[in-house]
Amino acid sequence: MEKTRKSIPLLLALIPFLIMIVAMTFVIIVFKGDPHIPILLGAVAAGVIAWLHGYSWKELEGYIYKGITKVLPAVVILFMVGLIISAWIGGGIVTTMIYYGLKIITPSFFLAAMLIICAGVTVMIGSSWSTIGTIGVAGMGIGISMGLPPAMIVGAIVSGAFFGDKMSPLSDTTILASGIAGSTLSQHIKHMLYTTVPAFVIALVVYIIMGVKFAGNAIDEHSIQSVMSSLQENFVISPWLLLIPLAIIMLVFLKMPALPALTVGVVLGFVVEITVQGGEISEAVKVLQSGFSIESGNEIVDQLLNQGGLEAMLYTVSLAMVAMIFGGLMESTGMLHVIVQQILKIARTARSLCATTVVSSFFTNVITAEQYISIIIPGRMYSQAYKDKNLHPKNLSRALEDGGTITSPMVPWSTDAIFVLNTLGVSAWAYAPYAVLNYSVPIISIIFSLVGFSVVYQNRNESREPSGSEKMKENQQEEGDIKEKLSKY
Fold first, then answer.
1. What one-character-per-residue DSSP string does 291-347 give?
2. Cα separation, 266 vs 91, whole angstroms
């Protein structure tokens, strides 16, 4: 048992990260591969270093299993999300939502409309990639025909899609962040409103102003009508179907646990697919397993609808498990602790800790090029520090998404940015200045954290903003830290 207490120096603790970063650079950017193997290489490096410092292989195996178990609750919900997406597509719920959403597009408010539509669709289905690959593709064709710059169009699409990715109770990142931090799904989503809604309003105003000069341009009605006609030909479209996703979102906000709420959504979608859409039970069951599939004759519609199912979640599940193998080893062997202690020297107060988490999640995106890792690794790194400062877990879960989920498409070599480039043909270097919501959220989050606004403490009598005297003490402590650092020079 003595072996488990053997400390690992900072420089050696950083080696697994460096190996993972180098491997990520080649596999993702050069070879266009997936992040799984680079993460495993980092885990192998962590295991070897720990073994050389006295840890037994049996202990290391235990740490791996311990890490994986921490992500299992999120895995169960992720499977439910795969089921609900396929059930809602088969039931015509998603198609109804898109049909009525496309009706509100007008030339003068095209950018604002794309922000709203992409946000609404992603909130409903929980997948930014699905929205970008469908509504985004349609929006690009329409916007370009109106004479709008492609980078501007993509900026609005990305802003809307990742608003939904961040705020949807069905989003894997939303579920993952709340699970890693230890907050409930409803607590997490409500707490994100403080930073995300102001950013959404700012983006909406900016897009309205930007779109004014394009008000006189003509819109290609044919592109919209083609999609809407295809949806009508293959599905029963009814506004009543929108009550199902609204009901599920209300259940989540009314604090019903995510698992039973999602189960209700799957059952309702399954029933509607059989009763309203006239599908067969046998086919509806296959859809839940393998996802929905259709050949409508319209390429955009096919891209939208051919997705979902239990099997579609296996990529995300495998990535989460691989990341937690790495995280479990780094955490249990004390290597994360060594790194965190160095970081916490500049984040000693609750306010600075929240701001530091946002920045750390962003830089994890820059380093690892993967949205999920930017949530998992900082989440495990800072979990204990939030407990020590008596901060509510929802502060951590919000900071992870404010710095991780929302900034991922801003990193040109990230998997999200590469997907956008391959799908819409515009690089992050070009659309990033127009992705207003994506850079507004982390800025707002950092400012709110530093001033103490919406920083919530764990105990009921401390669930408030720090008082004036407390803020003064925090300022004095931060000033003392700065003076201590300056004295070294």
1. ------S-HHHHHHHS--SGGGGHHHHHHHHHHHHHHHHHHHTTHHHHHHHHHHTT-
2. 10
Please provide the size of the chain in residues.
489
Of the ranges 169-173, 189-193, 312-316, the best mean pLDDT one:
189-193
Sign for the CA dihedral angle at 154, 160, 163, 167 comes to negative
> C-alpha distances in angstroms, 357 versus 69, 286, 398, 451, 465?
24, 42, 10, 15, 19
The two tokens of residue 457 are 């403490």
Tokens of residue 158, six digits: 């990305």
Convert the pLDDT of each residue in 128-140 to its tens digit: 877 887 678 777 7
Q: Which of 479, 462, 478 lies closest to 349, judged by CA? A: 478
Tell me the backbone φ, ψ of residue 183, rounded to 5 degrees. Answer: -100, 160
Dump pLDDT digits (tens) for 353-410.
Answer: 899 999 888 888 776 667 887 888 888 878 888 988 889 999 999 999 999 999 989 9
Instruction: Enumerate residues 6+ apart whose C-beta is below 8 A from 118.
Output: 131, 132, 135, 136, 139, 156, 157, 159, 160, 161, 163, 164
Integer Cα distance of 272 and 279 in angstroms: 9
Give whole-number Cα distances, 58 to 49, 63, 336, 434, in Å.
Answer: 15, 9, 20, 51
Identity of residue 435: A
Report which residue type is found at 134: T
Rounded CA separation 117/105 (Å)? 9
Residues contacting residue 73 through CB under 8 Å, at least 6 positions apart: 179
* ∠ CA 73-77-80, rounded to 5°: 150
Cβ count within 10 A of residue 438: 26
The residue behind tokens 């705020």 is 167
Q: Any idea where the domains of the chain sit in the sequence?
A: 73-314
The set of residues, in sequence order, having a beta carbon less than 8 Å from that of 438 and lying 6+ positions away, is 158, 159, 162, 406, 407, 409, 410, 432
| Spatial separation of the C-alpha atoms in residues 159 and 135, rounded to whole Å | 13
Distance CA 67, CA 91 (A): 37
Residue 35 neighbours by CB under 8 Å, 6+ apart = 24, 27, 28, 319, 368, 369, 370, 373, 415
Location of structure tokens 């930017």: 374
The set of residues, in sequence order, having a beta carbon less than 8 Å from that of 301 and lying 6+ positions away, is 227, 230, 231, 234, 294
Residue 487 tokens read as 């004295």
